[in-house]
Amino acid sequence: MPDRPDRPTGGGPRRRSVTTPAQRTRRAEPTRFAAFQLLRAVADGAYANLEMPRIIRQRALGPRDAAFATELAFGTVRWQGLYDAVIAVAADRPVERIDPEILDVLRLGVHQLLGMRVPAHAAADQTVGLARTVVGQGASGLVNAVLRRTSERSLEEWTEAVTPAGGGVPALAVRHSHPEWVVTAIRAALLGHARATADTVDAELSALLAADNVPPQVHLVARPGLVGVDELAADADAEPSPASAVGVRLRSGDPGRIAAVRDGRAAVQDEGSQHVALALAAVEVGPEVPARWLDMCAGPGGKAGVLAALALEAGADLTAVEVTPHRAALVRSTLTRLTARAEAAGRSVEVRTADGREIGDDEPGRYGRVLVDAPCTGLGALRRRPEARWRRQPADLATLGPLQRALLASALDAVAPGGVVAYSTCSPHVAETRFVVSDVLKKRDDVEVVDARPYLRDAAGEQLPELGDGPYVQLWPHVHGTDAMFLALLRKRPS
Ligand SMILES: C[S@@+](CC[C@H](N)C(=O)[O-])C[C@H]1O[C@@H](n2cnc3c(N)ncnc32)[C@H](O)[C@@H]1O
Question: What are phi and psi of 494, to 5 degrees?
């Protein structure tokens, strides 16, 4: 079992439980309560990354407590699949027969015992205290019994005990705490993008699933023309990224406290997303194409922030389109500084709340460069969104597929002859990536596929390593340290 920071680390000697009734905590301690609150909010549909900062503010947790509560909550959500298998054995019943609130309390207790270096007595004591506070005295017997049984084995022993015999996808799913359908889809993606062969796919798949469980280093983008990477790095505990010309890697600290992030000159952004925007800006277009760029699926505005900055440097305008009003408002807020800068330069950075599928008909041939960063399952960004793997369903693909095809077809209509469309997803799923592109291209003869690999360059200007045979690019967390972004560059033939 590979050693990695977020892997549950409780592999030491068996821990004997726990405390006597008289010693037990009667009330929930604030960090555990905050983590429980997060789990309940996620069960109600909240996004962990957005909800946790709110809970931390509401409970006025200091930096150390906030870090502990976040590690406890996010680790528990990520490892929920493995922990539920442990709880089912320790409670001697399927987890579906445990009250959801008690189950969340148990998951938090199991993560403290198996995944964090919390001493067994403290984990049990605090978890029983939490159960009393949030569920009532009646739950404490079950919680105490399950934690006592859990503490009798190490993480490695539990993993061996609950992993289905016979290996393959079911075993990897439990061992790496992913739903089986996600493991199957990622396996197919590794093969479908020719990252792996039949001989190497199992090792690649294990490495990728392991990478999904490591909380990523925070990457920042220095928006071109607004702040330099050296200046941004100097303002934070950070260093310029070797892998992206506009990237900075945070060593520690809260990005929200960095002045350049607060005032919109910089932002948190995975380097894979930075490469997508940089590649679209760098690819050659015909001499006659309009100096007008379009971001067709812009919310919340991460890539639009880079594209708008690059468009202004290139003397072009940017239109950012987003169908959901509140996400369009986020794009407006992201682009405030760039909109003002564009006006001062006699150019335009504009945000529209609209359906991207209609732009091809409404504005045929109007744009020189178009980004379709399509709505997708997000299976390439599981490191970043602890709950996403449990929330997504295979049926989502059936809804997303037609939308992705319609958006790409519209983009190809909206781009001028000689102009380029970038189609990207933060998913490597073949049904959202190369199948979408090949289906749309089958119906047209006015598009050529551009090899995207030369446009992905590191900070020294060298092409990124391990980009495969092209023409599409598929990045991988376990290879490139980025989200699993897919990128296709499609040029409309000059008429
Ligand atoms: C993957 S996200 C885009 C992320 C964004 N490019 C960024 O870097 O921050 C896809 C976005 O497309 C939007 N969307 C979905 N359907 C759309 C449509 N028909 N037209 C325009 N936007 C759409 C979603 O609301 C979502 O905000």
Answer: -60, 140
CA of 254 to the centre of ligand 1 (A): 27
* Integer angstrom CA distances of residue 141 from 20, 21, 122, 131, 399: 12, 10, 16, 10, 45
Known catalytic residue at 426: yes
Q: What's the token pair of residue 149?
A: 């049984």
pLDDT band at 25 (very low <50, low <70, confident <90, very high): low
Cα–ligand 1 centroid distance for 135 (angstroms): 39
From the centroid of its chain, how far is CA 183?
A: 16
Question: Does residue 24's CB lie within 6 angstroms of at least one atom of ligand 1?
Answer: no
298 is an annotated ligand-binding site residue: yes
Mean pLDDT for 337-362 is 97
Region for residue 61 given its phi and psi (left: phi exceeds 0; alpha: psi -120 to 50; beta: otherwise): beta
Q: Give me the percent of the chain exceeding a pLDDT of 90.
A: 92
| Residue 361 tokens, joined | 């008909």
Residue 102 Cα to ligand 1 midpoint, Å, equals 36
Angle 349-351-357 (CA atoms, 0-180°, nearest 5)?
A: 120
pLDDT at 495: 79
pLDDT in tens, 86-133: 999 999 999 999 999 999 999 999 999 999 989 999 999 999 999 999
Is 223 touching ligand 1 by the criterion CB < 6 Å? no
Place of tokens 């590191």: 458
Determine if ligand 1 sits within 6 Å of the CB of residue 352: no
Q: How confident is the model over 159-176, as a mean pLDDT?
A: 96
pLDDT digits (tens, 9 = 90+) for 398-421: 999 999 999 999 999 999 999 999
Nearest 5°: the CA angle 448, 451, 455 is 125
Residue 194 reports pLDDT greater than 90? yes
ipTM confidence:
1.00
| Residue 115 CB–ligand 1 contact under 6 Å | no
pLDDT at 24 over 80: no
Instruction: Please tell me which residue in 211, 426, 489, 490 is annotated as part of the active site.
Output: 426
